[in-house]
């Protein structure tokens, strides 16, 4: 592992000088570079670009679109555009990361297709990447960028460009080859959970039974119940309740629909029961939640501040 001085110096140089990477077939805009020691986590969020991360030291958990991934030293993963995600670590991790998006007008069609292909894969996660090309290039890049006297800026730019291309190549190879049973299994689990949540979300106004969802997904009730317990840490009724409260939170924050109508639209039997459940889950009554959202600069941030508490409550150990 490199010294903290190397991480801080390289981080400063890269962010000051490398926001655009140019190669023979691609032009890449870099939103930021990062090297963060003792990173203990962040709140649920999403962004419009790709963010590639590498765990140098420590352990944690990565949550993305309803799926839980374990993080440890040597893990390489990518958060896709518009995916809601966050990480948590009790002791803190040394995390490297960069955020990128292609400049379509200055890149080849093949390169743009690669990015579209990455977006189509549900699972961009490689648990044992210590001796892969990206990990080794990343280390070399940081060492050179941290030098007090940088004489060959071109070599650093070349390393940075090669790092990005090698990460994209490795993710594509990993997804296409399906070389680990775990990646295939996680992708299948993610697909099942996503379809289960979609069914629940589109039927919130009605009573939802486990048998209805299982029948729609062509899986057994026992299998679906076990999957939710193992991957989400929640029982089926708890998942349904969370989705009802989540929908209610958005309706409260973004509309002026009366509370009684929101209770009906989200499947609660009465406004009294809705108020009781919402208050217990979110920590504040629906009317207060709406007032707080109106007084907040960002309704979305305010809502997800509460939703993070719900996610943490059911977090897998």
Mean of residue pLDDT?
86
**How many β-strand stretches?**
8
H/E element string? Answer: HEEEEEEEHEHHHHHHHHHH
Number of helices: 12
Helix/sheet category: alpha+beta
Specify the overall morphology.
elongated
**Alpha carbon gyration radius:** 22 Å
List the helices and strands and how they pair.
Layout: H1 4-17, E1 20-22, E2 27-41, E3 50-57, E4 60-64, E5 67-71, E6 76-79, E7 85-102, H2 109-120, E8 125-126, H3 133-145, H4 153-177, H5 181-202, H6 210-217, H7 221-231, H8 236-254, H9 259-265, H10 271-282, H11 286-294, H12 299-313
Antiparallel strand pairs: 1-2, 2-7, 3-6, 3-7, 4-5, 4-7, 6-8
Helix pairs in contact: 1-3, 3-4, 5-6, 6-7, 8-10, 8-11, 8-12
Quick rundown:
This protein is α+β, with helices and mostly antiparallel strands. The protein has helices at residues 4-17, 109-120, 133-145, 153-177, 181-202, 210-217, 221-231, 236-254, 259-265, 271-282, 286-294, 299-313; strands spanning 20-22, 27-41, 50-57, 60-64, 67-71, 76-79, 85-102, 125-126.
